[in-house]
Design goal:
alpha+beta, Beta-Lactamase, Alpha-Beta Plaits, 2 domains, five-stranded mixed sheet, three-stranded antiparallel sheet, 7 helices, elongated, PAS-like_dom_sf, PAS-assoc_C
Length: 239
Amino acid sequence: MNTGYVHENSKDSFCQLFYKIQGSESIVSGVFQIRLADSKVEYEDYIWMRITLTKVFDENSVPIRVLGVSEDITEEMSFKEKATKDSLTNLLNRAAFRQYTMQYLAEHMDDESGAMFLIDIDNFKHVNDQHGHVSGDELLLNIANILTSHFRSEDLICRLGGDEFTVFMKHVHDIEEVRKKAKLLSEALIFNSDKLFSTCSIGIVMKKVNSTYEDLYWYADRAMYQAKQQGKNQWYLIP
């Protein structure tokens, strides 16, 4: 299936729509980010489309074709998107992260493709107390930018609130790739300047077959606790 005009974040669910209509369902619908066919630059000019596919049957109840209807809902989605974002960092908020991660897990119950990272700023209260909340907010924004630059556009990046962030890395099977990512991330999250010094502790867990959101979050939290117990400014992975 050619998905060249579909945003990376929508490709899985886009393909699922067509698989479903080929099966027993008579009508299916989904919402996707689609790049306009005449767009000259890749990954620009995406719009939100609601696509509905309906089977058409002959007099013997045999499906003979599929009717597709698309609707541009970009304006509607722009309002919804604002409700999914953290107001300071513009990352996903907790509710949206949970929803999107659960959607991915439901679509990949039978495989082990994914990893959850839980990132906590070490001694963040000290940063706020010693340097003020403006410096604290600047640190949060810097961390958000680092996370965005170190992960792919398809990965889910979230500020849970306060000094905690989380990332769900999609379609990753190789534990060595995750270890490499954790090492690079841990090094990038060391802030050492005349103004302040700050580090982060990171807990990571690999997705298993039939993992739930609650499973992954619980183990990532335990892993992050281990990183704290071992002296902070490091990462700990549960395979």
